[in-house]
Structure formats: C-alpha cells, structure tokens
Amino acid sequence: MVDVLVIGGGNAALCAALMAREAGASVLLLEAAPKAWRGGNSMHTRNLRCMHDAPQDVLVEAYPEEEYWQDLLKVTAGKTNEGLARLVIRESSTCRPWMRRHGVHFQPPLSGALHVARTNAFFLGGGKALVNAYYRSAERMGVQVRYDSPVDRLELAGERFVAAFIGAERIAARSCVVAAGGFESNREWLREAWGQNALGEWPADNFLIRGTRYNTGVLLKHLIALGADAIGDPTQAHMVAIDARAPLYDGGICTRLDSVSLGVMVNREGQRFYDEGEDFWPKRYAIWGRLVAQQPGQIGYSIIDAKAIGRFMPPVFDGISAASLPELASKLGLDPDRLMRTVTDYNAACRVGSFDHTVLDDCRTEGLVPPKTHWALPLDTPPYHGYALRPGVTFTYLGLHVDASTAVRFGGKPSDNLFVAGEMMAGNVLGQGYTAGVGMSIGTAFGRIAGSQAAAATGHSIPNPIKPDRLDRRSRA
Ligand SMILES: Cc1cc2nc3c(=O)[nH]c(=O)nc-3n(C[C@H](O)[C@H](O)[C@H](O)COP(=O)(O)OP(=O)(O)OC[C@H]3O[C@@H](n4cnc5c(N)ncnc54)[C@H](O)[C@@H]3O)c2cc1C
Q1: Does the beta carbon of 6 lie inside 6 Å of ligand 1?
Q2: Ligand 1 centroid – CA 309 distance (Å)
Q3: What is the pTM of this model?
Q4: Helix %, strand %, coil % for the chain, to 5?
C-alpha cells in the first residue's frame, strides 16, 4: 500500500507530492486529466505574489508582510483568516529556492503586464513550464503518476481516510491529500449556485471557464456531503470579463481584454452600468466578470475610439472596427440610436483635464450616472472599436474549512490522515476578491504543508518541515 495518495495534478497537488516524497514517503498522484492536459488551472498561470523586504533577483524594491496583508485585507473586505493569510505571505518569501530546486525558473515581467514587477515573481515559460518542471522532478524522485484518473469518491472510517475510488477501482493509502481544484467547470453546480435572474435567465449558462475542464468539484461536493466542514459562498469566484469569442474552457490569459478603462462599457441595451475609471485596471479587472454577469444576456461591450489604441495591451483577437459609432453598433448587434444616446450623453459630461493613464488623472464626467471618475475622454475619433465580453470564471471560492495543519475537519474534528490544499481550501484566505498572484502563493504554501503533514501521518518527516503547530495562533479554524 502506498504511503501518501495525492488527488489532483496542479500546483498544490505537485507541491504536496514533492514534499511528501522528500520526506521519504512513497507517493502516488492521481490526475483526472490526460497527460497532454495535466496541470489544472496552474498551467495557465504566470506568476506568484511574493513578500520580500529588499530587492530579490526578479523582484524590485520591497513588498513587506504588512503591505501584502493590507492588500489582501482590502480585496477580501475582511473576509479572510488573518493567521492563514499571514502564513501564506511569509511562505511566499521563502518558497522560491525550493521551487528552483525542483526546476522552476523566474523572469522579470514583460512590459504591459499588470504593473506587478515589485510584487509578483513571473515563471519563465509560464505555469505550463512550472508544472512540467514539477512533474519531471516528481518522476525523477520516484513519485508514481497516473493520468486519466478522476477520483469520484473516498472511503472514510470516521474522520480517517481509507481509500479512493476511480469507478470500481479501489486505491488504499495510509494518508491522502486532496488538491483537486474548485468546481468552476461544473456547469450544473454553477447554475444551481447562481440561480435565475429577474429576467428568467440562468446567468451561469453564459459563463466561460478560463481554465481546465477537469475541475468539476466532484470531491469537494462528496466531502461536504460526508460532513466535512466547508467555508465560503458558492457564488463567489474570481471572474474576469473576457472576449466573448473565447472557447468554453482553457482560453487562458490571452482572452482577457484591457481596454475597459479607456472607453465606455455598455450592456446589450446600449447602456453604461459601472464606472469604467474607478481605479487602476490591475485593481479592477477582476470585478468586471461579475458586473457583466449581472447584465441582461450576461454580455457587455467595451467601446473605444482611435485615441485608446496603443494605450492598452493589444488583444490577441482583433475587435470589431467601424468608421462611425452607428456603424459599430450595427456590427456589434446593438441598437445604433441607443448607443448614440449613451455616447452623446457621456461625451457631453466629460470634463477633460490632463489625461494620464498611469495616474488617477483629473479627466472625469460631471452629472452622469454612473460617473466615469478617471480617464474620461470623449469618444470622437474614428475608427471606433468594440469588443463583446462575457464573464470568464477563473476559479470558485467555496472550499473546505481548515486551520494551518490543512487537515480536513468533520464537525470541527480534524482528520489525522486526510489533508487539503489549493483551490479546494483557498476560500479560507479569499472570502471574496482577489489580488494577482495569490492563488499560486496559497497553493504553494498549503500544498507544501499538506504534503509534509500527509508524510508525517505515515511516520515520515523531513528535518526542517514547515511546522504548522508553530505558526500563528490566529490561523486556527
Ligand atoms: C487563466 C488563468 C490564469 C491564472 N493566472 C494566475 C497567476 O498568474 N497567478 C496566480 O497566483 N494564480 C493564477 N490563476 C489561479 C491559479 O490557477 C489557481 O489559484 C491555482 O492554479 C490553483 O492550484 P490548484 O492546484 O489548487 O488547482 P489546479 O491547478 O486547477 O489543479 C487541480 C487539479 O485537480 C485535478 N482534478 C480535478 N478533479 C479531480 C478528481 N476528481 N480526481 C483527480 N484529479 C482531479 C485537475 O485535473 C487538476 O490537475 C490563474 C487561473 C487561470 C484560469
């Protein structure tokens, strides 16, 4: 019988498998996806958010613990566990040498990335290279890996893990780490969580999934049904407004569009519905998926003019262009009169100061609802461009409630051999909101802890593991 069974094949699972193997445990990793699609959402990532007190290789200046914590506190509006959050933050300052040992390389961000040279370390070759490096290292170290292996249920004895099932096949192990992602690819579950809106629509039917199709939440649902303690709201998720032409799954980062703050955003009735200039785009891009989800038909249109070109990262797919706004409206399937009314009102309300997209400038509207508080320039210079946008779900936040040990808990009682990491428990830190790069920080910190804990549960431990029992008391669930 294998010592540690790891269920999942993304960053958190791989970190757990590597740590357990380093501790001397025998490890079997079960990945639902075929080999070509291994790596879950982690393969789509680009960076992790890192605390540092002084410049470090690819990271400039400093990003101290307190600033990182305040950023997290702000985006989650306090819906976070401070102890667990600080654990993630501190771990992010020390995990990179370990990552390098397993073949991960870092690079500075390219220009046009979301202004994160100070806070985020980018993976050379992106998340795909990271997961490939971890798989190579795991195989070299003797971790057994099985693809096309979706686990559909677990056998427990009280709180103790006994075995996992893939259909009729039963796989027993001494301990287990579940790191099988969120439920963002379970369209039925999204439908149930989001329900029907006032127009009788099922908004989730129009969501696109930015990442893997394999994160169906089967084990999350199963564990909750078995009595595991859960945390988070099933409608909370990281959602970006993405190109409506993106594929249903795995569109990745290239379907994001960064033009919103440079023009107006209208719904299918041709009406504006939110302040496009509220704050810098890196701080606001992740709210627009939800805003579009609340519009009729779950679609929005970013409308810009020639002045905006060159001021945002060019999208991979060209938008729709036209010499006039009525022509653009027709091409986008919008009512030309309604769009013209919206743009005429907006143009008349613009109070242009000195435009500067790198600061919260003084170009704003006056007397318009909703206002545009920065970067408000009239749309008056052809050609005009439009992009249809849909909600793109990155990952869901409902997860299992844990303390720093990462043990799955049943009615408050921790299992002594079943642990959880990554998106399946990220909701402990992210009750809502998001700050770029923290998903990988969470997966790396808790994946490594869960792997050490699972190995320790089988009598294997490494000389200097991360010791959750010595961590901040505030992290207790
Ligand atoms: C387009 C995109 C870009 C992103 N960019 C970033 C970024 O730059 N920085 C950042 O920090 N975060 C980013 N994220 C978020 C990040 O991907 C996640 O926070 C992180 O990957 C979660 O890691 P994980 O291991 O928990 O889940 P995943 O990497 O999704 O892995 C889950 C794994 O479980 C497997 N699985 C699912 N169900 C089962 C089952 N029943 N049995 C067996 N295996 C199963 C899946 O196949 C998959 O391998 C991005 C996400 C997307 C979609």
Answers
A1: no
A2: 33
A3: 0.93
A4: 35, 20, 45
